[in-house]
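User: Okay, second chain of the day. Same drill as before: sequence in, structure tokens out.
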Amino acid sequence: MKNLINILCAAVLFILMYACAATPNMPSEKVAALLRNGEFTFMAERALPSNYDVVNVMNSLPRSSSSRMLDLDYGYTIVLKKSELRVELPYFGRMYSPSYDTTNNSYRFTSKDFTVGQQTGNKGSSVYTIVTKDQPSIRRIMMEVFSSGKTYVSIDSNDRAPISYDGYLMENETVKK
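Assistant: Same drill. Structure tokens below.
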């Protein structure tokens, strides 16, 4: 009887862990259709700063850990449309020319003049290189999109240390009038 209880507890624990670990995966056909269309939204789930000084500072704070601090809330996105690129992402890292206006310390901008290059990456992924011409501080945005919709984004900037984001691809929201 005791073994039966242990087995049932382990099965329930396994089911709960599997249900909580589910990530939003899209069918590969839908991901391919979004990539062909060239209009999609990247939803960031986690920030990955490249500067370990930032991670060390976050780990030194009492009762906190950098791994929890870098998990992002819902709503940090890159929206790519044919005529517009809208970026709303937080920034964790070293800024070489910081602003006293704290609204300028994250990546929040809209670009109307940009180019998008696409090439095939490793393991069937698609790599997008976005270069903005009307944002002088942004060098390029690299997006690697996998067939499951999982996406890795890296932003290179002139006035900041590079930062990366993990997340997933989703369809652009349509505005109803």
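The two ends are 62 Å apart (CA to CA).

User: Thanks, on to the next one.
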